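Here is the promised in-class demo. Please do not try to memorize the tokens; focus on the logic of going from shape to residues.
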């Protein structure tokens, strides 16, 4: 709905690419002032860019100070920045990769939630009522594990329960802050560049499309719609929820059965 976020201020981490860029576009289209916080500068977009590393506590402090000084309020944080952890299993994942993936995908979300609560619980001249919405981008890998992708799956599983704890804490404190996680299936973004380099874009994408009962991966804009809904007051009774948007990937056994029911 156009204008539903008018006057609100939203930070999107990892907003220079993929799901984050699509979310920044939709939030901005709904009237929010959007700050894209990323290591990399976006190549397009009408929103403000702040160079930011989600793994750094100092970087989070500077980002919040900057946003409160310039906009006077914070209403929405989309903890979206993330990296792939590769295919490694428990025996083949080295400690350095494990720590890097947890630092970005899991600790980055912890730091983001803690920082955002500080900003959102404050009322002031620009924001008479405290409150806000935190949207944490997990994954279907945060709901189900495989033998490979160990570091990524562990990092995304942590985001799922961290989200619920944050939601309950904010509810108990009556901060008016909601916190939910989103669990996408495959989304066609540069996160798969490594895979495409190995097997080629066409066969890599065909492989990923076929894993989804719906027969295809998602476009980033399809996940951005979920983010927008969670950011808006239309989801006002939703907190601590895990919203799956995965083309049916985690719904049942369909793709694992050797036959299709008639
Ligand atoms: N694409 C998928 O299939 C898929 C599926 C499930 C979950 N996800 C999750 O969605 C989120 C977005 O992924 P995407 O597919 O859009 O990826 P992407 O690679 O297109 O974008 C990720 C963005 O995060 C930024 N980033 C990485 N490390 C950062 C850091 N330390 N600090 C700040 N920014 C950093 C990158 O610069 C990039 O702009 C990630 O958390 C990812 O794990 C993606």
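The designed amino acids, position by position:
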């Amino acid at each position: 709905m156009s204008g539903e976020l008018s006057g609100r201020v939203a930070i999107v981490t990892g907003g220079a690419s993929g799901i984050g860029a699509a979310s920044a576009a939709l939030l901005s289209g709904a009237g929010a002032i959007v700050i894209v916080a990323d290591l990399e500068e976006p190549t397009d977009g009408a929103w403000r860019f702040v160079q930011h590393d989600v793994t750094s506590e100092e970087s989070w402090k500077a980002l919040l100070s900057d946003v409160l000084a310039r906009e006077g309020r914070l209403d929405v944080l989309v903890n979206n920045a993330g990296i792939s952890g590769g295919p490694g299993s428990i025996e083949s994942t080295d400690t350095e990769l494990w720590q890097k993936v947890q630092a970005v995908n899991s600790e980055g979300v912890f730091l983001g939630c803690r920082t955002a609560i500080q900003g959102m619980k404050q009322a002031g001249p620009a924001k008479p009522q405290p409150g806000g919405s935190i949207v944490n981008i997990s994954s279907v890998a945060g709901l189900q594990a495989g033998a490979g992708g160990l570091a990524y799956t562990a990092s995304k599983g942590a985001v799922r329960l961290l989200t619920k704890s944050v939601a309950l804490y904010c509810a108990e404190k009556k901060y008016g802050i909601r916190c939910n996680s989103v669990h996408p299936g495959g989304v066609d973004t540069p996160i798969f560049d490594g895979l495409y380099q190995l097997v080629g874009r066409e066969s890599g994408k065909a492989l990923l499309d076929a894993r989804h009962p719906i027969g295809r991966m998602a476009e980033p804009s399809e996940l951005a719609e979920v983010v927008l809904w969670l950011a808006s007051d239309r989801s006002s009774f939703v907190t601590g929820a895990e919203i799956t948007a995965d083309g049916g990937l985690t719904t049942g056994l369909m793709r694992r059965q050797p036959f299709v029911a008639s």
